Amino acid sequence: MTWLPYAVAAWLLAAGLYGLASSRNLIHLVGCLSVCQSATYALLLGLGYRWGSIAPIFYDHPPGTPAVDPVMQALVLTDIVVGATLTALLLVLTVQIFKRTGTLDPEQLKPMRRRGDPAGADAPRSAEHPSR
Amino acid sequence: MTNALLSALPTAILVPLPVAVPLVVCAILLATAHLLPGRLPDILATLTALTVGILCALIASRAGDGAVTYWFGGWEPRDGVALGIGFSVDAASGWIGAFIGLLYALAFVFAWGFFGRTHGHFHILMLLFLAAMIGFCFTRDLFNLFVWFEVMSVAAFALTAYHLEESALAGALNFTVINSLAGFLMLGGIGLLYARAETLDFAGIAAAVANAGRDPVVAGGFCLVAAALMIKAAAVPFQFWLADAHAVAPSPVSVIFSGAMVSLGVFGLAKLTAVVFAGSAQVQDALPTLLTGLGALSAVLGGWMALLQRHLKRLLAFSTISHAGIMLTGIGALSAGGTGGALVYVVGHGMVKGGLFMIAGILLATRASIDEIALRGLGRGIGPAGAAMAVAGLLLAGLPVGLLDQGSRLLHGALEGTHPYAFVANLTGAALTGAAVLRATGRIFLGLGEDPGDEAGAPSEEEREKADRPLWLMLGPCCILLLLDVIVPPAWVEALAPDAINAFAHGTLTGGMEEGPLWAAWCPVGAAIALAAYALFRHKLPRAIVRPVRATQSLPARGLEALHSGLIGDYVAWLAVGLALIAGALALA
């Protein structure tokens, strides 16, 4: 039991969140999301680890030999699959966004921006004051 | 004949079918879609969704006052150790599954011919989405819950961006990033809980949690899992992604998003708090403040934002935030009445909101606009849709008839004495969202309100959906949903609810199921009509009345609009704030 993997996980999560919050480039943003996800890898592997034990493969070890927790490793494996799917999907979205808008800066694309209103400040105009 | 056949089927075989059937059809469609003639994928998908609904209803009626359990591959627990993955269906989960199946079937009918030639991709994604939702409702394994959560998310991301337009892409990106973060948080939380319980089965974790006492690992696990589910349920301050995603998704997809996906976040939270975390005093102490507080805030803020919108789908999206907040307050009451009310509300709200998004889709298809101001008076040719929208608006405000009202009455009864501020917030949220829908109805279908003149520009890029579909085909499913909400017999729900909630919560929730007073149902309806009338006839009122109202409104309204900036960085910052709020509530409990 050591605190190091948990500290690393917390650090990765915080760094990833900071990167997401301050990102000005969509590809950088996708990378930051992967950093956040790495926090879960570190956390899960840290939780499942047992000192002085083998990998959970009993081919050349007698059953009953202390092994690290295979459930955690299965969780991490699933997590990696999820991560690959998400990264691929996000990069596809990024490519499509770049094709349509010619920019990768999230500040330049707001979902409900008014056409021909680059500032986008008045985006979803209030229905209360239509004539303003 | 069929009855005899059905009763011969052992229930245990039925349990995995509602998930397996759509997945198999999904695979078949994917392999053969390019060979299938025109409308066959539509028919196949509709039938599959209906089958899922019927199967779920069958399981629910068989479950009675207990639960039907199924262990995959026969891995039943031995000596109290559950190594396998199980599905456990109680009546409440089963009926919600049945509702979801029905909603999908109607959404498929609504989407008939919507996408032209798609090689069935839309149907494949939707069926995957359906299977994930049912699995999410049925599972009794925490990691399995996460898997369905992720499958649900990935299908939803792809469906949001289906049109590949500029605003759809930006909305989908925000949705994807925030909900992926939700997935990561959930997985981290599951890891922590597993570290304490050494099992992923709900019952096993519940036992370990009860033994752990005041344990930071359990509290941390709960914090992360609850944050993930609240992101899905769009509670303040996690709500930002919802308006972006629901407003830009294709209408049939928005029907599912608002009708089922958001509510499932609430459903998951209700299940976990009642089943898994019932034994942790720390969590149970923190829950009322946390859930009624954030729920009440969501109810009011969502309602207010809905009133400020002129993009009809965005308006409906904010009203979903408001109503999800109302459901959360019910769970925060920690009583059988509160949770029961929230679950009935999930179904009733899904029907009404699904119908409303279908009407928005009808306007997009037949009038080629979704902007309330630009549509002013244009709805005159499609009167029946206007009538349906008015009815839906009144139901949303709490007209005392139907399933939605029954749910909100139960919520009122549970909250009235114990959490008066949440009770008031529920009434306010219902009134504000009802007013927003009624105002839009009056403006679009009756041509009421000021003539905006030339300034009525569209707020986003040109939007329209495929037009050459018959009106009755789109209006039919909407009317069926609204009708169902109204005609479900209250006595049946009343008789079913106590046992169903007991089985759902494994007997951890106490208290009766009292209904709230009748005035609490009528109040928001009256307020909604008055507010809508004020918005529509304001230009006829003397300026002395209008000016102070406008002055007190505009500053906070502008502030709220500025908060919903559409910037992913802001949303992530708010997510961190929300996480800190949950952690703080747990630390203080």
Question: What does it look like?
Answer:
The complex is a heterodimer of chains A (132) and B (589). Chain A has 132 residues and is mainly α. Chain A has 3 helices and no strands. In chain A, helix 1 (4-22) packs antiparallel against helix 2 and helix 2 packs antiparallel against helix 3. Chain A is elongated and about 60 Å long. The model of chain A is unreliable at 114-132 (pLDDT under 50). Chain B is mostly helical. Chain B has helices spanning 2-8, 11-14, 17-32, 40-63, 91-110, 121-138, 142-160, 166-197, 202-212, 216-232, 240-248, 251-276, 281-308, 312-332, 336-367, 383-397, 403-415, 420-446, 471-487, 490-504, 518-537, 543-563, 568-588; strands at 67-71, 86-90. Chain B starts with a helix and ends with a helix. Classes of the chains: A mainly alpha (132), B mainly alpha (589). At the A-B interface, helix 1, helix 2 and helix 3 of A face helix 7, helix 8, helix 11, helix 22 and helix 23 of B. Chain A: Residues 108-132 are annotated as: Disordered. Chain A: The chain crosses the membrane at residues 6-27, 39-59, 71-93.
Q: Provide the helix percentage of chain A.
A: 55-70%
Major beta-sheet overview of chain B: 2 strands, antiparallel
Instruction: Kindly report the average pLDDT value of chain B.
Output: 89
Please state the second-level CATH architecture of chain A.
Answer: Orthogonal Bundle
Q: Give me the count of strands of chain B.
A: 2
The main pleated sheet of chain A reads as: none
Q: What is the strand content of chain A? A: under 5%
Instruction: Please state the overall shape of chain A, judged from the principal axes of the Cα atoms.
Output: elongated
Oligomer: heterodimer
Report helical residue fraction of chain B: over 70%
Question: How many helical stretches of chain A?
Answer: 3
The helix/strand series of chain B, from N terminus to C terminus, equals HHHHEEHHHHHHHHHHHHHHHHHHH
Integer-rounded radius of gyration of chain A: 22 Å
Q: Structural class of the secondary structure composition of chain A?
A: mainly alpha
Total domain units of chain A: 1
